[in-house]
Amino acid sequence: MNTSHDRLVVVGAGLAGLRAAETARLAGFTGSITLVGAEELPPYDRPPLSESVLAVGVKTTVQTFRTVEQLSRKLGVEFLGGRQATALQFARRTLELDERESLCYDRQIIATRAHHDRFEGSDASGVTTLRTAADAYIVREALDRRARVVVIGAGLIGSEVASAARARGMSVVLLDVQPLPLVRAVGLEAGRICAALQRQAGTDLRVGVEVEALESHRGHVAAVALRGGTTLAADLVVVDRGAQPATRWLIDSGIMLHPNDGGIVCGPDLRTSVPDVLCMR
Which domains does the chain have, with CATH numbers? Predict the structure, then answer.
């Protein structure tokens, strides 16, 4: 039963987390709502990160859906940015955060994102994904200084990074373990068209290849080593491959995770195996 003393904590400050908070208010929830996000920014529009933010000569800023003030004033939502969820203690109904902070909750919604594959050497500087505003600015700065670019994964984001590099007249290597770019999403015929367009634009597209490790020099990425012995020089490596649910922090929580990918198992009503914890999917 909803009372004004109920405490709802939403973990994940992307669009799903924002919609969860908005929906709770629309449904008549009058208790406190705390929105926890790993980034300092409140929820923002992510598709432009790989489009307008990387465009040549355009200084684009990230567009937030709501400001921190709007979250507080219009929705009554407390935004905790730059904080990582580290554990869930369902018996005590507490969410553990970094810096040894805990949040008590009556109800919780998990709306965390995915993470990409990691390779040996992924901790070096110059290795990034393109999932956050900070990532986008790292990639843009590297492109603007004409870094040697290798993109691992020829999906939509990887292809857009390659296109941004080519728009600056830079060479770029685009790698994918699949036989064609985007083949799982669009099929063989469209995949062949995508491959032809990339090569016509001057992208060094290499498909059916597997990355073995990332090599570094003095802490910065220097090369991408492929299985079979080929090594590609790189100042910037963008990884767009192998998205997995970001649920490692839930391993000992009691929440049932899928044995294949670690995704949260929930029913059609979004309820997890733990009482009063829902999952946005």
Answer: 7-115+244-279 (3.50.50.60), 127-239 (3.50.50.60)
